[in-house]
Amino acid sequence: MISVVSAMLSNPIMMTMVTGMAGGTKITKVKGKKAIAEWDAQQKHGSIKMIVANRALITITGSDCQESDIQAYAGTIDYNKIQSFVSE
User: Fold this and answer.
1) Where are the domains of the chain?
2) E strands of 31-82, at which residues?
3) Within 13 Å, how many C-alpha atoms sit on residue 57's CB side?
4) In the chain, how long is the greatest CA-to-CA distance?
5) What's the CA gap between 83 and 88, in Å, rounded?
6) pLDDT digits 0-9 by tens, 4-17
């Protein structure tokens, strides 16, 4: 599942505050952009959150999968298209 929440977010620090950086959470990169990855190995559930164009919070979630599956899916998204869409 992918969700896009439009928000006036100025930097990744806001993202960190929103997620709380609990255990199983790490900062990673997707297509060269900073993101926060959360993974629960026991539940096989996780998410990747990132800010695009300082205006949209993108959340990609996966259940009953591997952490690498979520990373791979996140890598297929055209963030430039999202950026041009939210910048209009």
Assistant:
1) 2-87
2) 33-40, 45-52, 56-63
3) 19
4) 41
5) 9
6) 555 444 455 455 54
